[in-house]
Write a structure and sequence with these properties.
Elements: E1 10-15, E2 18-19, E3 36-40, E4 51-56, E5 63-66, H1 71-78, E6 81-83, E7 86-88, E8 96-104, E9 109-123, E10 131-139, E11 150-152
Antiparallel strand pairs: 1-2, 1-8, 3-4, 5-10, 6-7, 8-9, 9-10, 9-11
Protein backbone atom coordinates (compact mmCIF):
# COMPACT_ATOMS: atom_id res chain seq x y z
CA UNK A 1 0.00 0.00 0.00
CA UNK A 2 1.16 3.53 -0.72
CA UNK A 3 1.74 6.05 2.07
CA UNK A 4 -1.45 5.74 4.13
CA UNK A 5 -1.52 9.47 4.91
CA UNK A 6 -2.70 10.26 1.38
CA UNK A 7 -6.15 9.26 0.12
CA UNK A 8 -6.55 9.23 -3.66
CA UNK A 9 -7.97 7.41 -6.65
CA UNK A 10 -11.46 5.96 -6.90
CA UNK A 11 -11.09 2.24 -7.68
CA UNK A 12 -14.52 0.85 -6.83
CA UNK A 13 -17.88 2.36 -5.88
CA UNK A 14 -20.52 0.19 -4.22
CA UNK A 15 -24.11 1.07 -3.38
CA UNK A 16 -25.77 -1.49 -1.11
CA UNK A 17 -23.22 -4.11 -2.26
CA UNK A 18 -23.88 -3.42 -5.98
CA UNK A 19 -20.69 -2.34 -7.74
CA UNK A 20 -21.57 0.58 -10.00
CA UNK A 21 -19.85 0.76 -13.35
CA UNK A 22 -17.53 3.40 -14.69
CA UNK A 23 -17.45 6.82 -13.12
CA UNK A 24 -16.19 9.65 -15.31
CA UNK A 25 -12.54 10.56 -14.80
CA UNK A 26 -12.02 13.53 -12.48
CA UNK A 27 -15.76 13.88 -11.77
CA UNK A 28 -15.81 12.72 -8.13
CA UNK A 29 -15.87 15.80 -5.88
CA UNK A 30 -16.37 15.82 -2.10
CA UNK A 31 -18.58 18.94 -2.29
CA UNK A 32 -20.48 19.96 0.83
CA UNK A 33 -20.54 23.12 2.87
CA UNK A 34 -17.96 24.79 5.08
CA UNK A 35 -18.43 24.94 8.83
CA UNK A 36 -20.54 27.90 9.96
CA UNK A 37 -19.26 30.30 12.61
CA UNK A 38 -20.30 33.56 14.23
CA UNK A 39 -17.74 36.20 15.20
CA UNK A 40 -18.14 37.99 18.52
CA UNK A 41 -16.54 41.42 18.34
CA UNK A 42 -15.68 43.85 21.13
CA UNK A 43 -15.57 47.61 20.80
CA UNK A 44 -12.27 47.66 22.71
CA UNK A 45 -10.57 45.18 20.32
CA UNK A 46 -10.58 46.50 16.77
CA UNK A 47 -9.79 44.03 14.03
CA UNK A 48 -10.14 40.43 15.07
CA UNK A 49 -13.06 38.88 16.99
CA UNK A 50 -12.59 38.15 20.69
CA UNK A 51 -14.52 34.88 20.33
CA UNK A 52 -15.66 32.69 17.46
CA UNK A 53 -18.69 30.47 18.05
CA UNK A 54 -19.13 27.32 15.98
CA UNK A 55 -22.73 27.09 14.72
CA UNK A 56 -22.55 24.04 12.47
CA UNK A 57 -19.93 21.48 11.42
CA UNK A 58 -18.90 21.29 7.79
CA UNK A 59 -20.75 18.80 5.61
CA UNK A 60 -19.76 16.34 2.90
CA UNK A 61 -21.90 16.09 -0.25
CA UNK A 62 -20.06 14.06 -2.88
CA UNK A 63 -20.99 14.32 -6.55
CA UNK A 64 -19.86 12.24 -9.50
CA UNK A 65 -20.87 11.35 -13.05
CA UNK A 66 -21.82 7.74 -13.72
CA UNK A 67 -21.01 6.96 -17.37
CA UNK A 68 -21.67 3.21 -17.55
CA UNK A 69 -25.42 3.32 -18.06
CA UNK A 70 -26.62 -0.25 -17.95
CA UNK A 71 -30.15 -0.95 -16.72
CA UNK A 72 -29.06 -2.12 -13.24
CA UNK A 73 -26.95 1.02 -12.65
CA UNK A 74 -29.81 3.30 -13.74
CA UNK A 75 -32.28 1.56 -11.43
CA UNK A 76 -29.80 1.68 -8.54
CA UNK A 77 -29.19 5.43 -8.74
CA UNK A 78 -32.48 6.71 -10.21
CA UNK A 79 -35.11 4.14 -9.29
CA UNK A 80 -37.52 2.76 -11.83
CA UNK A 81 -37.67 -0.81 -13.05
CA UNK A 82 -35.69 -3.21 -15.21
CA UNK A 83 -37.41 -5.67 -17.53
CA UNK A 84 -35.53 -7.72 -20.15
CA UNK A 85 -32.56 -5.35 -20.08
CA UNK A 86 -34.75 -2.27 -20.51
CA UNK A 87 -34.82 0.47 -17.87
CA UNK A 88 -38.09 2.33 -17.27
CA UNK A 89 -37.97 5.60 -15.35
CA UNK A 90 -40.06 5.86 -12.20
CA UNK A 91 -43.51 7.38 -12.60
CA UNK A 92 -43.52 9.08 -9.20
CA UNK A 93 -41.18 10.57 -6.65
CA UNK A 94 -38.56 8.01 -5.65
CA UNK A 95 -36.24 8.38 -2.68
CA UNK A 96 -33.16 6.20 -2.92
CA UNK A 97 -31.04 5.73 0.18
CA UNK A 98 -28.35 3.23 0.87
CA UNK A 99 -24.94 2.31 2.17
CA UNK A 100 -21.97 3.52 0.11
CA UNK A 101 -18.53 1.91 0.13
CA UNK A 102 -15.67 3.40 -1.87
CA UNK A 103 -12.37 1.60 -2.37
CA UNK A 104 -9.46 3.85 -3.29
CA UNK A 105 -6.28 3.29 -5.29
CA UNK A 106 -4.35 4.30 -2.16
CA UNK A 107 -5.76 1.27 -0.29
CA UNK A 108 -8.33 3.07 1.85
CA UNK A 109 -11.98 2.24 2.31
CA UNK A 110 -14.49 5.06 2.69
CA UNK A 111 -17.92 4.19 4.06
CA UNK A 112 -21.09 6.25 4.19
CA UNK A 113 -23.66 4.12 6.05
CA UNK A 114 -26.66 6.31 5.18
CA UNK A 115 -26.63 8.30 1.93
CA UNK A 116 -29.55 9.74 0.02
CA UNK A 117 -28.99 9.78 -3.75
CA UNK A 118 -30.20 12.61 -5.95
CA UNK A 119 -29.59 11.78 -9.63
CA UNK A 120 -30.39 13.05 -13.09
CA UNK A 121 -29.20 12.76 -16.69
CA UNK A 122 -26.58 15.23 -17.86
CA UNK A 123 -24.03 15.56 -20.63
CA UNK A 124 -24.80 15.43 -24.32
CA UNK A 125 -26.09 12.93 -26.81
CA UNK A 126 -23.26 13.41 -29.28
CA UNK A 127 -20.27 11.69 -30.84
CA UNK A 128 -17.88 13.81 -28.77
CA UNK A 129 -19.29 13.01 -25.30
CA UNK A 130 -21.35 10.33 -23.57
CA UNK A 131 -24.61 10.71 -21.72
CA UNK A 132 -24.05 10.57 -17.97
CA UNK A 133 -25.98 10.49 -14.75
CA UNK A 134 -24.91 13.13 -12.26
CA UNK A 135 -25.23 11.65 -8.78
CA UNK A 136 -25.21 13.71 -5.59
CA UNK A 137 -24.87 11.91 -2.27
CA UNK A 138 -26.52 13.57 0.71
CA UNK A 139 -24.72 12.16 3.74
CA UNK A 140 -27.21 11.53 6.55
CA UNK A 141 -26.80 10.59 10.18
CA UNK A 142 -27.34 6.82 10.60
CA UNK A 143 -30.40 5.94 12.69
CA UNK A 144 -28.23 4.06 15.21
CA UNK A 145 -26.23 7.24 16.00
CA UNK A 146 -22.92 5.95 14.58
CA UNK A 147 -20.56 8.04 12.47
CA UNK A 148 -21.93 9.24 9.11
CA UNK A 149 -18.52 8.90 7.39
CA UNK A 150 -15.66 6.48 8.02
CA UNK A 151 -12.23 6.25 6.40
CA UNK A 152 -10.26 3.06 7.09
CA UNK A 153 -6.55 2.49 6.52
CA UNK A 154 -5.22 5.85 7.73
CA UNK A 155 -1.83 6.08 9.45
CA UNK A 156 -1.95 6.60 13.19
Amino acid sequence: MADSKFVYGLSKFELDDLTLGYIEKDSFDWGGKDAETVDVNAEQVPGQPVLVLLQKNGTVEPTFNLIQLDAANLAAVMGGSVTDGKWSAPTGLVQISGKVKITTASGHTIEIPNALLASNFTGKLALSEVTKVKVTLKVQQPSDGTSPLLIDGLAA
